[in-house]
Amino acid sequence: MSNNSNRNIAIQLSGVKKQYRLGQIGGGTLTADLQSWWARVRGKEDPNMRIDQDQRLIGKSFMALNGVDLTIYQGEAIGIIGSNGAGKSTMLKLLSRVTAPTAGEIDIYGRVASMLEVGTGFHGEMTGRENVYLNGAILGMTKAEIDAKMEDIIEFSEVREFIDTPVKRYSSGMYVKLAFSVAAHLDSEIMIMDEVLAVGDMAFQKKCLSKMRDAAKEEGRTVLYVSHNMNTIRQLCDRCVVLDKGKVIFIGDVEDAIEIYLSTADVPQDITIDYKNIPRLQWLKYVNTKIRTLESGYIGKDSVRFVSSEKMRLYIKWINEQNVKDICLRIEILKRDRTPIGTTFLYNFYSGDKNNVSSVECELDISALAKGSYAMTYVFFEIDEFGNTNDIDCVHGLFFEILENNVSGVIWSERNLGNIRFPLINKI
Amino acid sequence: MNDTIATTEKYHTHISSKTKRFSLNLGEVWKYKDLIWLFTKKNFKLIYKQTILGPAWIVLNPLISSLIYMVVFGMIAKMSTDGVPGILFYLSGTAIWTLFSTSLTNNATTFTQNANVFGKVYFPRLTMPISTVISSMIQFGVQMILVLILLTYFAITGQVHPNWLAWLALPFVLIQLGALGLGFGIIISSLTTKYRDLSLLVTFGVQLWMYATPVVYPLSQLGEGTLRTIIMINPVTMPIEVFRYAVLGVGNPNPFFIGISVVVTIIVLLFGISLFNRVEKTFMDTV
Q1: Numbers of helices and strands, H then E, in chain B
Q2: Which of A253, A254, B67, B75 meets the CB 3.0–4.6 Å disulfide criterion with A240?
Q3: B20: buried, middle or exposed (CB in 10 Å: 19+, 13-18, 0-12)?
C-alpha cells in the first residue's frame, strides 16, 4: 500500500455531489407546469400550489452525496459500507453512469461492468442463450466476444441443460446463476457490484466470491463491492470505504472500517417483531417450509438492554403450514455484522397439526456474552429418522445490547478479547 | 504493463457535472452496434409471441386497414385514387405511413418503458430507438413484398405505370421517414420523462397527422390553395409523394417542398438526439 503513488488509478472522484430534490418534481403535467409558469410571469400566486404547502420547503434538496473525494487504484478489491441512506447506491449509480453527478468530476480508467442488479434486461420469453447475448451486449460486449466466452459462461452457470429453454421456466436460482455468469465473464477492467451475492445457494455464492477474488488478485481487475454482509466484505476486500450521510468518513483497513461502520449505525430498539410485513428470506425458496413464524418479543422487558447477569426471556409465535412432529428450535446469536458468536438449542418441544397457531416461551442464559450489541436468528428444524436436520423456517430475530459485565478489573475490548467471557478459570 | 496503460487510456471515461449543450455521441452508439441488432431481433421475437398467426400479422395489419379504407374512402366517400387500383393505392400508402408512425409511437415511450433497465446499467440509450426504427424498416420491407406482388400484376395488365428510374430515390425516402419518426419519437420520449400526458397525446396525434398527410387520398384531390400548401409543408408529405411517384407512377413531388422536408428532418433529428442525450443522463431522478 505504501507505493500508492506509483500505482495506476482506476477510479477517481473529486468533489462529487449528488443532489435530489425532495417532494414533487414539477407539476407532473405539461399544462400544470405551463399554468404555474404563466402565474409566475404575471406575478400571481401559483394556482397549482397546495394550500398547506410550506413555501420554504419548495426547492429543498437532499444531498445523497455531499462532496466525495476518493481514489481507487487498479487491482484493488474495495468494499463500500455504510448504513441505509449513507449514499452507497448513489455512488454506484454515478460510477455505472446510470445518473450524472450534480457537481464534481469522475474519471474512470477502464471498462466498467456494473452489476447493480443481475439479469438486467433478461426477458422471460427468450431462451437462456438469447438472454446471454442480449445481456452481454447491454453490458458492453460484442457478439464475437460473447461467442468466444459462451462455453465458459454456460459452464460456470451450471444450467447447461436448460440453456435453450425460455428463462421464464427457470427457477429463481437458475436465473441468478446465469445472470451472474454473464456479468462475471465480461472483459472489463472494473467490476461494480451491489449485493448480488445475496441470492443463489451457498455453493454458488462461494464460487462467485472466489471468481471475484480471482478477478482482483490474478487478473488485476478492480472490484468495487457494496454489501451489508460484513463477512463477504472481509473475504473479498483489501480496503474499505465507510460512507455516512453522503461523505466518506473512513478509507483503509477492512476491520477498522467495519468497526467504525458499526459504531455509527444505531441498534434497532424494537422489543417485538411482527413478521407479517417482512418478506421471507431468499433462500427459504429452496427449502420445504412447514411453519411460518408470526411474531416474537421479549417477555417482561421494555427495552433491548440487558445486563449479563439477567436472564433473557422471549416468546416466538408461529402457524403450522403443514403437520409437524417433534420440531426443534435453535437461536443463533450473531454480531451486528452477522458474524456468528454461538448457538443455543431447544429440542423436540412441539408437535401439532396444520393451521394451528402456537407459541413457545424461552429463557436464555446470556451470562457469557460480553458487552456489545448482538442480533439473533431463529431457526426451526426437524430431525428425520436418519439423523439429518431439515430447516423448516428461519427468521432474523430481535436485537439486544449487553450493557456491562459482572467482572471488574477489565475494560472489555471486543477487538482484543472477543465476545464470550468463559466461566472463570479454576486453579488446580 | 504497457498493455494495461494502453487499455486504460483507451477506455478513459470522464464524467462531469457540466454537460455540453450539444453532443451527438454517435461514436459510442457505433461501438454498441451488436446491441442494436439484438434489440431488433428481440422486438420481432416478442411482438408475435403467443399469437396464433405470428409474423403473418406484419402483412395482415396493413391489408385489413387497406380493405377498410377501400370501403370507407373508396366506395362510400368515393375519393379519387389518381386512377390507381384501390387496393394497391391504400396498401402502399399504409405501408409507407406505418414505417413513419411506428418509428414515432414506439420510440415515444423509450424512457418510461425501459426505466427498470436504464436504472441499472449504462449503455448508449440511443441504441434502443435506432433498433425500433430498423424493426419498422424490416416490417416495411416485408409489406413491400405484398405490394410488389400486386404491383407486378397491375403493371402487367397495364393498370399502373411505375417510374422505374425513380426507384433509385426510394432508399433515401425510407431513411428520411425513419429519421423523421426517430427524431419526433425521441423528442417526445425525452419530454414524457417529465410530462406523462404527452404519451396519451401521441396515439391521438399520430392518427390526426395521418389525415393531414396524403395517405388515404392523393395530393391532387386537394386542388390549389392554402390547404394544399399546408399539407405540402407537412414534412411527411413529400417523401410519400416521391414514393408514390416511383411505385405507382402518380403523385406530385415538388423540389422546393422536398428541400423543406429534408431540412426539417435534419433539424428534428439533430435536436432530438441532442435532447435525448441530455435527458438520458439524469432522467432516472425524475422518472
Answers
A1: 13, 1
A2: A254
A3: exposed
- Rounded to two decimals, the pTM is 0.73
Say which CATH architecture domain A272-417 belongs to.
Answer: Distorted Sandwich (2.70)
Every domain of chain A and the residues it spans:
66-264, 272-417
Residues present in chain A in total: 428
DSSP A336: T
What size, in residues, is chain B?
287
Interchain CB distance below 8 Å, B119 and A98? yes
Using an 8 Å CB-CB cutoff, list chain A residues near B9.
109
Q: How far apart are CA A215 and CA A231, in angstroms?
A: 19
Q: Which of A102, A125, A189 sits opposite B11 (nearest CB)?
A: A189
What are the residues of chain B with a beta carbon less than 8 Å away from any beta carbon of chain A?
4-5, 7-9, 11-17, 19, 32, 34-35, 37-39, 42, 45-46, 49, 116-123, 191, 194-198, 281-282, 284-286
DSSP notation for B149-217: HHHHHHHHTTS----GGGGGGHHHHHHHHHHHHHHHHHHHHHHHTT-THHHHHHHHHHHHHHHTTTTSS
Q: How do residues B61-94 score in pLDDT, each as one tens digit?
A: 899 999 999 999 888 988 888 888 889 999 999 9
Chain B contact present for A96, CB below 8 A: yes
| Calpha distance B40→B136 (Å, rounded) | 9
Name which CATH class applies to A66-264. alpha beta
Q: Which sign, positive or negative, has the C-alpha torsion B193, B196, B198, B199?
A: positive
State the DSSP code for A426: P
> Under DSSP, is residue A197 helix (H, G, I), strand (E, B) or coil?
helix
Q: What is the pLDDT of residues B239-269, one digit of tens each?
A: 999 999 999 988 888 899 999 999 999 999 9
Q: What whole-number distance in Å separates Cα of residue A179 and Cα of residue A157?
A: 8
Residue B243: give the domain boundaries. Answer: 23-286
